Amino acid sequence: MSRQSKPSKIEDIARMADVSIMSVSRAIRGVEGVSEKKRAEILKIARKMKYMPNSAARSLAVANSNLIGISLPTFAADVFAEILNGMRQTFDTAGYSSVIDTTEYDSEAELNWVRRLLSWQPAAIILTGTDHHPETRDLLKASPIPVLEIWDHTDDPIDICVGIDHFQAGQMIGEHAVSLGYQRPAFVSTPRGHDKRADARLEGIRRVFSQQRAAPVIAARPPLGNAFVTGFEGTKTLLANHAPDLICYLNDHMAFGGLMCCQAEGLSVPDDIGVIGFNGLDLATVLPIKLTTVRTLRRLMGITGARNLLARINGVPTELSKILPLELQPGQTTRPQTDNDLMKKGFFRSSQSLGR
Amino acid sequence: MSRQSKPSKIEDIARMADVSIMSVSRAIRGVEGVSEKKRAEILKIARKMKYMPNSAARSLAVANSNLIGISLPTFAADVFAEILNGMRQTFDTAGYSSVIDTTEYDSEAELNWVRRLLSWQPAAIILTGTDHHPETRDLLKASPIPVLEIWDHTDDPIDICVGIDHFQAGQMIGEHAVSLGYQRPAFVSTPRGHDKRADARLEGIRRVFSQQRAAPVIAARPPLGNAFVTGFEGTKTLLANHAPDLICYLNDHMAFGGLMCCQAEGLSVPDDIGVIGFNGLDLATVLPIKLTTVRTLRRLMGITGARNLLARINGVPTELSKILPLELQPGQTTRPQTDNDLMKKGFFRSSQSLGR
DNA sequence: CTGTTAGCGCCTTCAT
DNA sequence: ATGAAGGCGCTAACAG
């Protein structure tokens, strides 16, 4: 096939339309400074000549671009896919393109990617979490580029952030578990230090159990892998070495793997053991029993983050730090909260009235 | 915070190092033409001055970039995430950045994205499937940019392709089902025309059943949504209106939703009804019974595609069209193939000996 | 090995 | 409303 000899540039169009280069530039960008008549004609000719702008040239001239960099830990988790979806839609309609990176939870990799991305003078950069390589922070702090940190929350963001409070999420789970009377909780997570948010949630649970029950929380840390599988395997080793009456999971996928393991081990949920997930994924809606979990507003998070970031790009003031609410969703994988109901009604008091 | 006054450029470094701009350019790019002594010194100064290259300027000068565009239907499917992972790793280490798009199965959206992307003179473009807007094809055919079509297969790719034969996959499922003696098959899919690959697989199943059993295949097409949920819902309406003895699913996630539905409806799998998935996802490994499915090599597909594409970018000859193998994995969600085993041993013959 | 020259395609600025 | 001149930062191509 005849591969296009040479793409046309605005100069070619200017020559064809018998106008100056500037008129073409203005016409194409849609800025004022050309009569409507001229503009229409120029655009017609541009279309006929299959004109395609050169973003590099434009970017060089204006010292920025319509690229937005997005760094995620991984694609292998619906959670980030959903956040991403919410953002991409917003950016896409605003004319931005997404340069995406997956760090696999490696801050060095993130740093290298940020470096490469900055060379494109992107319109903005989005990072997952608030835990980055110090040089990444320095680099971004020193640049005029808007930065959004998403999913986690901090009082000291690089620029702006939208997320949830993972420690509080852990506390929420802990409070609920305590209110249901659980005594020997466990948490199936990822390798230590791998995911700061996971660690924060575990700390939240621990805080509550240590304060209100003086009980430890056993942490199981299966090796990395598919979430369903790590949930399954983590539970298996956990049950082999301990006798928890409740297992909390890093997320719903792992909780599902855990449920399958309990079933395989002949344990009945919630009679023999309780299970709590995290995120409130759609997966849970098809299960025969409703999963106790914490609902996170992932899509909203993506949309909110994108909106705030766009505002910042356009110089409009916006909230620098936004925390999204969490909602504990009691299900059938934990024991019913009869006692708790009674307590609420004031029949008797328990340790619950102590905490927080 | 003091936001960097003005990023340094190679000219600044040249001045500092007391050499010409070109020496700096060569030193930084790592090309020959500078003495090692000079290079070392230049790099040291560059680091000290926190030099950061300007990709737009480079791109403008050399008329290409190290951006690679990747278009996927959606993130909401592990399948594409896995393919993407395989690719990204390869590209990343080769120094490319990924500009990613999700079309949500809309060819117009894909076209618009391709247009925007082309303005960056990317090193390559990757599209999912072989079914595109005609203008997308024209645009890409006319450009000198390498194009990879992935996941599906065609004899007439835009440029090169790596994928599987979805029609053959359907036939594989059909053959297996026929060999197990199923008579009233159904297929739970997506809305008609939404996903060409889904349609191709259905056709493959239909071909086999019509040839070897003169039996139709009922197609259920639940509205779009979460795969687990659509699998569940599609099965529900299917069972309300028909009495299939086998349900094939678009993918393992939907098959899982279907299994949950069967359970909810009081049907025993595989005694009352058979279930076949697609892809061989890790999810299946944690289920109490092994899912009958077709294994696809998604990660390999990503890696192979990336490798071939890199070769093409570098002008090295590579295979233009690669089909990856499929493997039917018999599981416990379809009835055991005793009869079939007997047939293999030659005890008696059946319609099986007719086809193919 | 080193430096000079002349763009790459577009946009800002300043004339008219 | 229109156009001319100059530059964005970098790199081929050529000259020493």
Automatic annotation (TrEMBL), chains A, B:
Protein name from the UniProt record: HTH-type transcriptional regulator GntR
Residue span(s) of domain HTH lacI-type: 8-62
Source organism of this protein record: Roseobacter fucihabitans
Stored Pfam families: LacI, Peripla_BP_1
Family annotation (PROSITE patterns): HTH_LACI_2 (PS50932)
Keywords tagged on the record: DNA-binding, Transcription, Transcription regulation
InterPro entries: HTH_LacI, Lambda_DNA-bd_dom_sf, Peripla_BP/Lac1_sug-bd_dom, Peripla_BP_I
